[in-house]
Amino acid sequence: MQAYTSGAPRLDSKHRDTCYRTLLLHPRSALHIYNCNLAHRRGERTMAITTARAIIVPAVESKLWDSTIIFSHGLGDTGAGWSFLAETWQGRKLFPRTAFVFPHAPTIPITCNGGMRMPGWYDIVDFGNLTAKEDEDGIRSSARILQGIITEQVERGIPSKRIILGGFSQGGVMSLLTGLTSEMSLGGIVALSSYLPMRGQVPSMITDANRKTPIFMGHGKVDPVVRHEWGTMSRDLLLKQKCEVTWREYDGLGHSVDPEEINALEKWIASRLALESDSPGGSGSKSEL
């Protein structure tokens, strides 16, 4: 059995134990993600959003709420595994007018893990084989879930250009697919340790609304789960489609994130929200989260 680490960055002494996860993976065994520190979950607000459950972190300056970051987790995880992003950034007084949504994937059987049921945005038939048959029905179903969350944010008064859609691993895969095919122009798309699914179809599915939407892709160069070359291949395919991609890769980083990557993402998000702050539709009444 091979062990991988796929966890949150240890940003500082305050957050170093926020969320540590170990993945044990074998083609015929279950993928386990355990040891998330539950202490920091106290006081989190949860609610149902369309067909997905999610952890909701309201904007610190709730009456001035003007943007939302939606961030989806990877296989076997939950939204709680990435809520440290909101805790960290809000704790440092960043993005005070931004709300955060961390969706929980539906629980489904995962073929490559012997059919064990676990949170997943889509089934994986053959782990480690990018050319294996993809669960297109599952991918499309999860895209509808994420699009529903985007739509709900817009209905609450947040302009779509003030929404950042992102995720890690499977969550990043879904963010690429959902963002690029959405009819609502987004402020940005984030894919960490991810790849572009349905590569033969997505180029023709990219909407005019998001063909020029900036994309941030980050990948560890020694990722044993979602290989580095899958990321670069996806990046190159997107560039051929004239998409705007910011690519960052990290020496010695496996299937995880680290402070350097989070810092780069933080700066990228800040630039996106600053650029879109004066976009049309930026004001209006918004219902409370």
From TrEMBL:
Leading EC class: hydrolase
GO annotations of cellular component type: cytoplasm
Domain of life: Eukaryota
Domain Phospholipase/carboxylesterase/thioesterase span(s) in chain numbering: 66-270
Coiled coil, from the record: none
Reaction(s) catalysed (UniProt annotation): S-hexadecanoyl-L-cysteinyl-[protein] + H2O = L-cysteinyl-[protein] + hexadecanoate + H(+)
Enzyme Commission identifier(s): 3.1.2.22
Matches recorded under Gene3D superfamilies: alpha/beta hydrolase (3.40.50.1820)
Family matches, as InterPro entries: AB_hydrolase_fold (IPR029058), LYPA1-2/EST-like (IPR050565), PLipase/COase/thioEstase (IPR003140)
A single BP term in Gene Ontology: fatty acid metabolic process
GO molecular function per UniProt: carboxylic ester hydrolase activity; palmitoyl-(protein) hydrolase activity
The keyword Ribonucleoprotein appears for this protein: no
Keywords from the UniProt entry: Fatty acid metabolism, Hydrolase, Lipid metabolism, Serine esterase
UniProt similarity note: Belongs to the AB hydrolase superfamily. AB hydrolase 2 family.
Function: Hydrolyzes fatty acids from S-acylated cysteine residues in proteins with a strong preference for palmitoylated G-alpha proteins over other acyl substrates. Mediates the deacylation of G-alpha proteins such as GPA1 in vivo, but has weak or no activity toward palmitoylated Ras proteins. Has weak lysophospholipase activity in vitro; however such activity may not exist in vivo.
Name the record gives this protein: Acyl-protein thioesterase 1
